[in-house]
Amino acid sequence: MDFRRSNNQGKFLFPAWLLPILDILLIGSILLTHAYFHHVRPTAYEIEGKPISGNNTHTDTHTQPGIDPDPDPNPDPDTNGEKYEDQITWGSGPWFTKYRDKFTETVQTTENGYTSPGISITVEKRTMGKGSGLVTYYVADIYMADIEYFQSYFAKNKYGSGIRQTVLEMDTDSGALLA
């Protein structure tokens, strides 16, 4: 097949069916390049030379009730370095009175649950269907005395793009109650 003009000027002509294919390939390569640099490649963001991570993403820090976000180098002898679960006041929080029976005065951990003065989590394993259509799933009932108890952990606790961790890695790194 000869792709030259009939007057033999020596210029190469593409067949008409090849032009849309070349356009699609060119646009696809541009989009893939853009996606790689903006969404896939791991990038940690910085503001004024300081990395943005975990608690540094905003100045208005919301922490667990009763916990000082900037611990004193000379801690109060009454706390004795207790974890925040042990410092939570029994009966505090706007939802405590509504769900009082879900919380306990001390931290209690079981195979399928966790209760403390501010958080209650119960996980149930359920199945549905029969034979090859059997589906197993888990349902978690979560109660919090105050929204301040809610915390999340994603991607090594950094704000960035292309940072990936499995759920198990995030659970292990953060000491999560539920993952």
Task: Describe the protein.
The relative contact order is 0.13. The protein has 2 domains: 14-64 and 151-179, no CATH class; 90-150, no CATH class. It has 3 helices and 8 strands; from the N terminus they run αβββαβββββα. It has helices at 18-40, 84-87, 167-174; strands at 43-44, 46-47, 50-51, 108-110, 113-115, 119-128, 135-144, 160-161. A 4-stranded antiparallel beta sheet has the order 4-5-6-7, with no helix packed on it. The protein has a two-stranded antiparallel sheet with strand order 1-8. Strand 4 (108-110) and strand 5 (113-115) form a beta hairpin. The radius of gyration is 28 Å and the shape is elongated. It is α+β, with helices and mostly antiparallel strands.
List keywords for this structure.
179 residues; 2 domains; four-stranded antiparallel beta sheet
Write the layout of secondary structure elements.
Layout (H helix, E strand, L loop, with lengths): L17 H23 L2 E2 L1 E2 L2 E2 L32 H4 L20 E3 L2 E3 L3 E10 L6 E10 L15 E2 L5 H8 L5
Antiparallel strand pairs: 1-8, 2-3, 4-5, 5-6, 6-7
**What strand line-up does the widest sheet have?**
4-5-6-7
Distance between the termini: 63 Å
Query: How many helices does DSSP assign?
Result: 3
Q: How big is the Rg?
A: 28 Å
Uncertain parts: 54-86
The dominant shape is elongated
Could you describe the largest sheet, including whether it forms a barrel? 4 strands, antiparallel
Summed up, what is this model?
With 179 residues, this protein is of the alpha+beta class.
